[in-house]
């Protein structure tokens, strides 16, 4: 009997099942303590308008069973992973070049798909149904991909934890909204360029200005936080994001406060408006007027803006400035000993990251036609940061996958109307998004603590490009 | 001695106080051009503090640290430069830098003083080759027109980058790391990391290379190889070396000039032979007062 077990132990990893069960039972007991009163008992109103207690043993049992099975599964997966012989682990590490492969081929395939996406949706869902899929899924996800790629420069490459990134998004959005709707500018342009010029061209003129202003505010934020690291840096950037939002709320003469700014001019097709008039896009190109053209145009616009962000940040990584950012994340003192001006290096990271946030903000204002400080709350910063961290810091493809999961996943929940058949007509799956979000984060912590794509791609190589495992790459702490 | 008539570095009256603690007390010494100068002393003598002052990581409380490029007349220019507000003087026959007036990164970028660290500071998540590319940041930055030319892939930048890779290859071959060029620096064994740090410092084209305990943690064979590497850096590149070292086999074999510190004060300065027989040095290392040295020596059989 003993000889059989020992040979079994050699052949296959040994797992202590009794410990797994004890663990699972303990977790279930903790869950019973937590949920016993929260879920097991419910207060309700009786027919006589009196408060009565309703016991829900069935639901409680269901949740406890879920905790038990869940803990058992997680414990088993971890035990199997830990029991694997070290050689197998090494073999797996060597194979991690697949992540490089994803980075190399994944992006072109994905970009090709994106260019075909609006036409595919138009073909399958028709012009009426397509708006939702292009706008809510396509454009929404692409905005977050672009923001994620912009923040990736600051957090992923330079290792500076920025919790106030939404401030630059707000700066970009308000720069465009305020300039485009400002009376003096309108009058000036009308006097010099003709009355139709400004509404048509405002977006194209303001887009670079919004980027430059956001970059400027990036430097303004960068200066005071140069000496800060880690938690302190995170707190100050968080405060900065809130300051911008509070100024927008309270400086009513400037930004119209809570009421926000409305009737922001929409982007034109390089001077051709998207409307039903004779000079509009549809009439000009001999098409029947429908609002879908504007949506498709906005989709391609944000796609191109996002691709510019990706191209520039991928390119910068291979330039001395990008290498200096990554070196800064690895070791700031060593950087200074090699003659790198760390002040300039940090400020360029802040400025370039902020600039892309500003572009995205201008696009956001143009797409919505209305903005208010409500759109720039801390939760937005947190979501963008979650995208970068979840994707794997420094990885472009990781940001794409994380955006699709986080933003697209939430949108997809709204589509799960079929679940109403099971859970009753009052069931709204979108209300569970925070629960699912939290669950995903916990699973990530267990499964891939350094993000979905957790290997680093070297910026230059001599003979063979080998990915750098996350064991060596530092997170950077400001 | 070269340190007297042809110095590359001149430290005068250097004092560094941390609150009430005097880490370095009125230290003056020179390092000769093309010399290997060793800074030795018992633990806590203030050697690394001196290094941090020279490389700008600390601002000295008192003192002047002058570095010279070329054949410029030291005595003629130094007083004028000290009286001016500038940190550097550039003449036709060379330049003079007052390191205590320059920020740390400029000491490497402008004065070309490179250093390594006692606890190795590599960019461990970057490959060996990338480490050496980061070291060439400033020339590459200029060649990329401060990123703009590089962004558009101009030919000038591509040439400069290929040149930088060639230079990195040269140093990788010299430090026998060429086969590991594409591996993460954090993956290298300890001895290789030490050599990589030296290669990285050399990629900044230093006039003076400061090594903080380069032989720490190396086995005797690796130590010997380190000696060869340091000698060749001096011979082939004309770089002057300043090193802190506890390994006496390294110090006595390769250094031309030894400065001994104890409790932040200089107790001896001379050739390795002179220093070795200096009773004050022996006393400092044995940890006893001068007059008891002979008794203790007899006791331990030196």
Radius of gyration of chain A: 27 Å
Q: Specify the biggest β-sheet of chain A.
A: 2 strands, antiparallel
Work out the helicity level of chain B. Answer: 40-55%
| Global outline of chain B | globular
Strand order of the largest sheet of chain A: 1-2
What fraction strand of chain B?
Answer: 15-25%
Largest sheet of chain B: 6 strands, mixed
Which superfamily, in CATH terms, is the homologous superfamily of the largest domain in chain B?
A: P-loop containing nucleotide triphosphate hydrolases
The name CATH uses for the topology of the largest domain in chain B is Rossmann fold
Q: Oligomeric status of the shown chains?
A: heterodimer
Q: What is the averaged pLDDT score of chain A?
A: 86
Structure in words:
The complex is a heterodimer of chains A (478) and B (302). Chain A is an all-alpha fold and 478 residues long. Chain A has helices at residues 2-11, 17-38, 57-83, 86-94, 97-157, 166-181, 183-193, 197-222, 230-250, 252-255, 281-284, 292-317, 320-330, 332-337, 342-368, 378-391, 396-414, 419-423, 433-447; strands spanning 41-45, 51-55. A two-stranded antiparallel ribbon of chain A has the order 1-2. In chain A, helix 6 (166-181) crosses helix 15 (342-368), helix 12 crosses helix 13 (320-330) and helix 12 (292-317) packs antiparallel against helix 15. Chain A starts with a helix and ends in a 31-residue tail after the last helix. Chain B is globular and about 75 Å long. Chain B is 42% helix and 24% strand. Chain B has 2 domains: 2-112 and 206-300, 3-Layer(aba) Sandwich (Rossmann fold), CATH 3.40.50; 120-204, Rossmann fold. The model of chain B has no long low-confidence stretch (mean pLDDT 91). Chain B has helices spanning 2-5, 47-54, 74-83, 104-109, 128-135, 137-143, 148-151, 155-174, 190-202, 220-237, 248-254, 272-276, 279-286, 293-300, and strands at residues 7-18, 21-32, 36-40, 62-70, 88-91, 94-98, 113-115, 208-212, 240-244, 257-262, 265-270. A 6-stranded mixed beta sheet of chain B has the order 7-8-9-3-10-11, with helices on both faces. In chain B, strands 2-1-4-6-5 form a 5-stranded antiparallel beta sheet, sandwiched between helices. The two termini of chain B are 29 Å apart.
